[in-house]
Design goal:
The protein has 306 residues and is an alpha+beta fold. It is built from five helices and 14 strands. The protein has a domain at 79-273: Muramoyl-pentapeptide Carboxypeptidase, domain 2 (2-Layer Sandwich), CATH 3.30.1380. Helices cover 19% and strands 20% of the residues. The structure holds zinc ion.
Length: 306
């Protein structure tokens, strides 16, 4: 299969910088434009059908426009500036990395070219993960297909294959598809402007919503209608595999999805914040007391009850 080179043009190449807004449908545009010359039409399919804009009901207000004085990012002036200080043209190669080779044994992947900026976003050794293969070669699709650094993709694939799918199987549920919510996206943490760069901006993070089963049932990871023991078991395995796990009860931004990443921290510090919530008890209706029958008054005569 032909591949794009993992890195890009020599330093003298002019750059036609493109803006990467922080919304999902457009986030790949910058990378696609930057690499269009190098990779020809190979990336033409990147803007997949998943990114087709949804029709928005007219009753839904449009997002507030950005103040014009706050630029989304500053356009780089040279290829070197855009590519980042760690870019080394001598390392340009179309050979699969060791990680690619390991990952290809347990997943269907498409290696991607180096993703460039803005700022510290992007990086090398990125892949698109289309599916994970279980030991019996059953194909578990991942939709929308996430774009991740190979190391993160490998952790995700191994977790789905060796931990999530067996746990579901044990609970009588056969996994068919993993539903994602977010993957590579150049933005600050929790989409807060000016916040520290999210691990999503480096391809080191993924957000998951649900598992779809063979019978089309969806197992929402934060759904209190899903058996608590199963959610707790999935949580335990995620916290053992990833260095950051955020869910309900973490910071208010993860009440309906789970964030997983492999951020490296000093002294191996890990974050596992996912409250596996109790199912809501059924509403108790207190019956009204049965009306007492009227007690007939005892007749009294000459001050004595008869
Ligand atoms: Zn996330």
């Amino acid at each position: 299969m032909p591949r794009c080179a993992r890195d890009t043009k020599p330093e003298s190449s002019p750059i036609n910088a493109a803006i990467l807004p922080d919304i999902r449908p457009m986030r790949w545009l910058g990378a696609i434009l930057l690499f269009a010359g190098l990779c020809g039409g190979m990336l033409g399919g990147l803007a997949a059908a998943e990114d087709a804009p949804n029709l928005v009901p007219s009753a839904v207000p449009l997002p507030r426009p950005r103040p014009p004085q706050v630029p989304a990012w500053i356009e780089p002036h040279s290829f070197r500036e855009a590519a980042g200080s760690d870019f080394n043209s001598a390392a340009v190669t179309d050979k699969p990395t060791d990680c690619d080779l390991r990952l290809a044994r347990i997943a269907t992947i498409v290696p991607m070219p180096r993703l460039i900026g803005p700022g510290a976003c992007g990086g090398g050794d990125m892949v698109r993960v289309d599916a994970v293969l279980l030991p019996d070669n059953k194909r578990i699709e991942i939709r929308p297909e996430p774009y991740l650094r190979c190391e993160m993709a490998e952790s995700l694939a191994a977790w789905i294959r060796d931990e999530a799918a067996p746990r579901l199987e044990k609970a009588g549920a056969s996994l068919r598809r993993v539903e994602t919510y977010d993957d590579f996206e150049c933005r600050g943490r929790n989409r807060v402007i000016g916040a520290k760069l999210s691990e999503h901006g480096k391809g080191n993070a993924i957000d998951l919503r649900a598992f779809t089963l063979d019978d089309n049932r969806a197992i929402g990871l934060t759904d209190i209608g899903v058996p608590k023991a199963l959610r707790a078991s999935i949580r335990e395995s995620a916290c053992a595999r990833f260095t950051t796990v955020l869910g309900p009860g973490s910071d208010g931004y993860h009440e309906e999805h789970i964030h997983l990443d492999i951020a490296a921290r000093r002294n191996g510090y890990r974050i596992c914040q996912w409250d596996v919530r109790e199912p809501q008890p059924p509403a108790v209706t207190v019956p009204l007391p049965i009306p007492r029958p009227k007690i007939a008054e005892t007749p009294v005569k000459d001050g004595r009850k008869l």
